[in-house]
Amino acid sequence: QVQLLQSGGGSVQAGGSLRLSCAASGIAVSTYSMYWYRQPLGKERERVATVTMAGSTNYADSVKARFTISRDNAKNTLYLQMNSLKPEDTAVYYCAAAQSTSTYWGQGTQVTVSS
Alpha-carbon distance 26 to 31, whole Å? Predict the structure, then answer.
């Protein structure tokens, strides 16, 4: 059974930092493309960051130079370090793992940034 268990998140003032974690079981994160998505209230889910199996990373323009996606293969965990947070970063954040036709999702975690 595949499980992506998220932790981290919470409330922070603008300019602050948070780190999200996504611990995987049932899959090896090194063999999947791993993603962070977010969904603001009332809006569509958007992809924030990607790390491929080869280790390449990609970011949405809105978070470039502020967010960093990383993967610890030994801990089988995905991370999202979020710095210089803005109120518009407020959303529910989801991790995801994708390979071929299989996609798995974390349970989501709320990030709230106050001005």
Answer: 12
